[in-house]
Write a structure and sequence with these properties.
Radius of gyration: 16 Å
Shape: globular
Strand content: under 5%
Helix content: over 70%
Low-confidence stretches: none
Structural class: mainly alpha
Mean pLDDT: 95
Largest sheet: none
Distance between the termini: 10 Å
Number of strands: 0
Length: about 160
């Protein structure tokens, strides 16, 4: 178990590549180009959203429950993959709803149907990118946070 301080640091570290990856993917899918100013705005919003979700929503607990239902062995690759299914789902649902609304309706002045279509078309690619990045970065982020906080690794 991590202390709250270590969890906060881990969440901050974890969300850097995830917020960047989902912001970049969404922008490339929507515009087929990168506009640095827009990328930075979306990164900042995704980063803050992801921190709040990471600190307030028990997504890891839900993921562990899902991994248990799937009868995977704790500490195994399938266990980690199962946990990430749920954790990534929570993060991507919240980020996709907020960022799509922000970009399509607020910035783009488009009607609500465009927001709905944006969600439908963006969700799966964003989920896949988020899943891969979060799975690959989870352990390094946790190790960095535990080193910063001088907390032992969980076995």
């Amino acid at each position: 178990m991590m202390s709250t301080k270590c969890k906060a640091i881990c969440t901050l570290i974890m969300n850097i590549p995830i917020a960047l990856a989902i912001s970049l993917t969404a922008q490339l899918l929507a515009t087929h180009t990168v506009v640095l100013k827009l990328l930075l705005i979306n990164f900042a919003i995704a980063y803050v959203i992801s921190f709040i979700v990471g600190m307030l929503v028990p997504a890891v607990k839900w993921g562990m429950g899902f991994a248990g239902v799937c009868k995977t062995k704790p500490g195994s690759l399938p266990f980690g993959l199962c946990i990430n299914v749920i954790v990534n789902l929570v993060y991507v649902v919240v980020n996709c709803i907020i960022l799509t609304y922000f970009n399509v309706v607020i910035l783009g002045h488009a009607p609500i149907i465009a927001f709905v279509m944006g969600l439908v078309t963006m969700f799966v690619p964003i989920y896949i990118v988020g899943y891969i990045v979060s799975f690959l970065w989870n352990q390094p982020a946790e190790n960095i946070a535990r080193n910063i906080c001088k907390e032992p690794a969980q076995h």
